[in-house]
Write a structure and sequence with these properties.
This protein is α+β, with helices and mostly antiparallel strands and about 200 residues long. The chain folds into two domains: about 110 residues, D-amino Acid Aminotransferase, Chain A, domain 1; about 70 residues, no CATH class. Helix content is about 30%, strand content about 20%. It has five helices and six strands. The strands form two sheets. Strands 1-4-2-3 form a four-stranded antiparallel sheet, with helices on both faces. A two-stranded antiparallel sheet has the order 5-6. β5 and β6 form a beta hairpin. The longest helix has 13 residues. The two termini are about 30 Å apart.
């Protein structure tokens, strides 16, 4: 099999490539070089991935202006460096347009003395897969490996990431695949489906 069989026949840049580039540039200028969760949602939106309704509200702004009256939301504290907001009480469920400002005020009161609370991300509550180790959460990451070049990380997400990191042998648990795999290939698609459905 030749390398060309793994390459896509034609690549078309997503329409929001300039916006994505701006988001990545902004993240690269931060000390952490990481995207905020709401910025990841923005990237997905720009490439055409359908998402539940979401709105990022910086501290000091009116959350009610950004939310729909007929929906319930999960409120997530936006704190640089805080990976698992659940551990610090940075998640609230069943938030409505009418209760959003109270939730933001409560998060500010509880979290600001210890954490740098920049804002709150409100995401529409949806039903999702709750079976399996990751409870429906996935990890997707891109990085530049010194030996292999551009790589994608894909697997179970949420707190499962830390659990697996603790039980897997160091440097023995990674599978490196070329980033430019042809996803139309039935074998590659099948392998990805197995990964997704067993997560």
């Amino acid at each position: 099999m030749q390398l060309s069989s793994f390459l896509p026949n034609k690549f078309t840049a997503p329409p929001g490539v300039a916006d994505i580039t701006a988001l990545l540039k902004r993240a690269s200028e931060r000390e952490s070089c990481l995207l905020n969760e709401y910025e990841v949602y923005d990237v997905f939106t720009h490439i055409g991935v359908s998402l539940p309704e979401y709105a990022y509200v910086p501290m000091g702004e009116d959350a009610a202006q950004a939310l729909s009256a007929d929906k319930k939301y999960v409120a997530k504290a936006s704190i640089p460096g805080c990976i698992h907001k659940t551990d610090i009480g940075g998640i609230s469920f069943n938030v409505t347009k009418d209760t959003a400002m109270d939730v933001m005020t409560d998060m500010h009161t509880r979290l600001s003395p210890e954490w740098n609370l920049e804002g709150v991300l409100f995401t529409e509550m949806t039903a999702f897969h709750t079976k399996g180790m990751s409870n429906g959460e996935i990890l997707i990451s891109a990085y530049d490996d010194p030996a292999f070049g551009p790589c994608l990380a894909f697997g179970s997400g949420g707190t499962t990431v830390e659990y697996l990191k603790g039980v897997m042998r160091p440097n023995k648990s990674a599978l490196f695949l070329p980033v430019s795999l042809n996803l139309r290939d039935k074998h590659i698609r099948g392998m990805i489906e197995v990964c997704v459905y067993t997560v």
